[in-house]
Amino acid sequence: MLGLQVETNPKWVAAASSHVARVLVDHAHCEMKAATNALSLSARCMLHPKVARALVDLAEEELRHFRRVLDELDRRGIALEPPEEDWYAAELRRRVAGERRGKQTLDLDAVLVDRLLVGALIEARSCERFRLLADALGEVEPELAAFYRELFADEARHHRTFFDLAVDVAGDASMARDRLARIASIEADVVRALDARPTMHG
Ligand SMILES: [Fe+2]
Ligand SMILES: [Fe+2]
């Protein structure tokens, strides 16, 4: 699905759907991080103004998602606690950057392409997990399931946007596709190492 090479462990679905409050708090932080990541990437795109503008649009949409998750927390009387460590995203970025350093490339566009493709894969994983959560919550929490189904569609579109922006910067679709497949295999290794905690990327 969306370039992912491994499916989420079913144990995660069981853990997440039985700890909805913890998942919602973590989800709020994920949306905020998605907004700040898109904004900080846009500031690195001065040579690619179209890409910078698209990332600002994306950041605005992620902020709207953040606000909606905050509303859901308020409705349920759940406090927004401090964020838990997102080992998945940090480890994925670390491994991709490590591989690039191994190749000793200082090409700033190559760095940007990698960061956009990492973004595409994080969106794809969120998308997969929103669908799994929506399916698991369908009977017990129909409104929350509908919310996750709606976000599933948004994150699928964001996956595509990040990939298209990477193609724009790389100027070569087949190169971007090959690099996406390579980063997807790194992402699959990171996902295999997860221990099914009830967080969005647990
Ligand atoms: Fe989002
Ligand atoms: Fe997103």
Briefly, what is this?
The protein is an all-alpha fold and 202 residues long. The chain has seven helices and no strands.
Structure description:
There is one protein chain. The mean pLDDT is 95. This protein is globular. The protein has a single domain, classed as Ferritin, CATH 1.20.1260. Helix 1 (10-17) crosses helix 5, helix 4 packs across helix 7 and helix 5 runs antiparallel to helix 6 (142-170). By secondary structure, the protein is mostly helical. It contains seven helices and no strands.
Q: Which blocks of ≥5 consecutive residues have pLDDT under 50?
A: none
List the total number of helices.
7
The molecules bound to the chains, other than polymers, are: fe (ii) ion
The main pleated sheet reads as: none
SSE string: HHHHHHH
Average pLDDT: 95
CATH architectural designation: Up-down Bundle
* Count of extended strands: 0
Number of domains: 1
| Shape descriptor | globular
Distance between the termini: 19 Å
Say which CATH homologous superfamily is assigned.
Ferritin, core subunit, four-helix bundle
Radius of gyration using CA atoms only? 17 Å
Q: Briefly, what CATH class?
A: Mainly Alpha
- Which secondary-structure class do the elements indicate? mainly alpha
The portion of residues assigned to helices is over 70%
Q: Approximately how much beta-strand content do the residues carry? A: under 5%
Could you please say which CATH topology applies here? Ferritin
